[in-house]
Amino acid sequence: MYKPIYWYHGNEKFPDTEVDQVIKELVRLGDELIKREDAISSYYLKLHSRPDKIWQPKYQKIVDEITTSIGIESTTKYTWDYWSQLYHQNNKHHAHHHSSGKNTISFVHFIKPTDENPFVFLDNDGNDQPLPEQREGDIVCFPSYIWHRVKPLKSGQRYVVAGNIEIHYQNKYHLDTSL
Description:
The chain is α+β, with helices and mostly antiparallel strands. It has 2 helices and 11 strands; from the N terminus they run E-H-E-E-H-E-E-E-E-E-E-E-E. The strands form 2 sheets. Strands 1-9-6-11-4-3-2 form a 7-stranded antiparallel beta sheet, covered by helices on one side.
C-alpha cells in the first residue's frame, strides 16, 4: 500500500515572545486577511505586510539546510516562500497539495502545535496517514504533489508556518570536473 513520502528535517523552536507577537498581529489583521475555514492565514498578504516576516532570515537558513540535506544546494536555482496559519477550535484545511506543475518541495513548521496532531497526509484512497509526532519546532518536508489536510481542531489554538521551495533549474551533471 502506498504511504506518502515525507521526512523530518529537524526541530527549530522560535522564542515564545516572537511567536506571541506574530500571533497577536495576525489576530489584529484578521479582518483584512483571507480566511479559510476561519483559520487566519498570511498567505495572501504581501511579504512586507506579514507579521511573520520577522522570520525571513531564519527561513532562509532553514531552506538552505533543506536543500543541502538533499544534495541540491549547489546544482539548482530555486525560489522559496512561506506563510503562516492560525487555527482555533473547529478550524480545518481541506485536502490539498502545493504542486504548481514544477519540481517543488513543501514544508510545514509546527510552531505552536496541539496534542491532537491534526495535520495528516492522504494515501491514494483518501485515507488519513497521520504523522507519528507533531512537536513544537518540528519541520516536516514532502514533495509538493503529496495530498494533505488539517483535520478540524477540537480545542485550543494551533499555529504553523508552511512553505514551498520551487526548483527552477537543476544541473543534471555532477559538478566535480575531476571525474
